[in-house]
Amino acid sequence: MTTATTQQTSPHAAGRRAGRRAGGPRRIGSHLFLLLAVLYFVVPLWWLVVGSTKTNSGLFVGSGGALWFNDEFALWDNVQQLFTYQGGIYWTWMRNSFVYAIVGGVGSTVLAVLAGYALAKYRFRGRNLYFSMLLGSVMVPLTALTIPTFVLLSQLGMINTMWAVILPSLLSPIGVYLVRVYAVDAIPDEMLDAGRVDGAGELRLFFRVALPLLRPAFVTVLLLTTVATWNNFFLPLAVLRDPQLLPVTVGINQWQALSNAGAGGEQVWNLITTGALVSILPLVAAFLGLQKYWQGGLSLGSIK
């Protein structure tokens, strides 16, 4: 009996070993590709961290090379200069970026969740047409909309105000699309019908039934819209003139233009590098802070 069992199981074991041998080259290739992808994304970030520790001259001439530290560690001096240069205007730019990102990100997420839920769970005339127009707007690059947006805001008298950046940021077609696609399968129609039979109104159904199930989509859209608003460059560059209203992206670009002026301008490359590093820290904190809600929402949805 033992011999028969061994004879029956040995072909399966041989097949598994053959499969592992056949999949070996594919596994090595996929791991190599992932390693190259990691290096592609990590090397610029590593250079930013290393560059923030160097002096203005050490960025171009140093003992450590471009991707390693110099003998002189100037990170704390760079941070101190960054927060005091031009009267500490970097603080103002960071505050403006927080206002634009929070108001624009939260506002666009709320609108995207409401619109996506309505497109997914309500039947009304023109729904497919509206969704087709939404898909078409996703394909339009944001840079192509900068000039028409500038003209519209100019006619409304909103140029050089915070509203010129906040109002366009409230629209997120890709956010509406993501919520709509997620809500179709995440919220069963039977659950909503059962709530209506029990006498629940539409608002109560949305806040008590639909919104908890939409938490992963909500967090995803919130991250995408907040990052997009924080990194927004062309729109603030076109509609803002007052340096006190600029976000950190446009403000650092002004310092870069000053440094590119050569002998006629002040060289502040160390402040540009350090300012870029400091500007990404809130985004890293946002991703790390919202990750548990994101994963928790996905697990909750899989259990239900």
Write up this protein.
This protein is mainly α and 304 residues long. The protein folds into 2 domains: 1-40; 79-303, MetI-like (MetI-like fold). Helices cover 75% and strands 0% of the residues. It contains 13 helices and no strands. Helix 3 runs antiparallel to helix 10 (215-230) and helix 3 (89-121) packs across helix 12. Mean pLDDT is 84; it is low at 1-7 and 297-304.
Please give the number of β-strands.
0
Computed structural class: mainly alpha
The CATH homology group name of the largest domain: MetI-like
Classify the fold: give the CATH topology of the largest domain: MetI-like fold
- The CATH class of the largest domain: Mainly Alpha
Helix fraction, binned, reads over 70%
- Report the major sheet: none
Tally of distinct domains: 2
Count of helices? 13
Could you report the average pLDDT, rounded to the nearest whole number? 84
- The assigned CATH architecture of the largest domain is Orthogonal Bundle
Beta content: under 5%
Short précis:
This protein is an all-alpha fold and 304 residues long. It has helices at 2-51, 75-84, 89-121, 127-138, 146-155, 163-169, 173-186, 189-197, 202-213, 215-230, 234-239, 248-260, 269-303.
